[in-house]
Amino acid sequence: MAVSGFVSKDLVRNPHNLELWLKVNGKKKQQDNTSAMRFQIGELVEYFSSMIELNEGDLILTGTPSGADPIHPGDFVEAKMQQDGKDIASMFLKVSDAGL
C-alpha cells in the first residue's frame, strides 16, 4: 500500500468536499469526491475509536471508488487529492514486484 505525505488539517477547508482521482499508466481509473462517502469522517473516527484505541498517525481505510483494477509490476500510478481545483496531496510511483 502506498499513501501520500501527511496533509495538515489546516490545508483542508472541508474534508467532505475533496476531489480524489487515480491514474494508472496515464489513464484515469478512479475519480470521486469525499462528499460521496456513506459515513462522514467524524462518524468513522467515533465508530472505530469505540472499539480500538486510535493513535496519531493511524490510518482508517474505508474503501475505494468504482474503477479499481489490478496493478502490475512496471505500472505507473498517480493519485491526487484536490480542493477547489488545487492539489493538496499527490503521489506518483512505479509498481515493483515488492510493491504488490
SSE run: EEHEE
Poorly predicted ranges: none
Helix count from the secondary structure assignment: 1
Number of domains: 1
Query: Quick check: average pLDDT?
Result: 90
What share of the residues does DSSP label as strand, in percent? 25-35%
Strand order of the largest sheet: 2-1-3-4
Rg (CA only): 15 Å
- Termini separation comes to 8 Å
Extended strand count: 4
CATH superfamily: Fumarylacetoacetase-like, C-terminal domain
CATH architecture: Alpha-Beta Complex
Helix/strand class: mainly beta
- What's the story with the biggest beta sheet? 4 strands, antiparallel
Write up this protein.
It is a single chain. The radius of gyration is 15 Å and the shape is globular. With 100 residues, it is mainly β. Helices cover 9% and strands 30% of the residues. A hairpin with a 2-residue loop joins strand 1 and strand 2. It has a single domain (14-62, 72-99), classed as Alpha-Beta Complex (Fumarylacetoacetate hydrolase, domain 2), CATH 3.90.850.10. The protein has one helix and four strands, in the order E-E-H-E-E. It has a four-stranded antiparallel β-sheet with strand order 2-1-3-4, with no helix packed on it.
